What does this fold into?
Amino acid sequence: MQTDIDPRSLIGRKAFDRHGTKIGTIDEVYLDDATGEPEWAAVRTGLFSRDAFVPLEPSEMIEEGLRIPYDRKLIKDAPDFGVGRHLSPEQELQLYHHYRLDISSPASDSVPSSPPADKDFGRIAGED
It folds into this structure.
């Protein structure tokens, strides 16, 4: 993901799966508390549907919106923790496991394998 992009500019943009099929619209962007970098987005998957959390790394900005390099079914099956709240370390680990992301990779150094119990992860972009 391009780190020079304002995460608030993602809200309201369309999200597409790896095949270019529209998944939905980005509702929220979550920042890593340790780095301040955009890490997750909540995508509204339909008018009466729920939000699916998607990783912003390795997603990429395209002219039409955000391309998420996963199949639509995997994205729609992602855990839904509700928007507007912090992601707990346990919830974030569930997402890493769901997408089979390596939690020890350089892009995710801020997510320790045993996060401290008092640490909040995933604050919402624009919150102080």
Remarks:
- The chain has two helices and seven strands.
- The beta strands are 14-16, 22-31, 38-44, 51-55, 60-62, 65-67, 123-124.
- The longest helix spans residues 89-98.
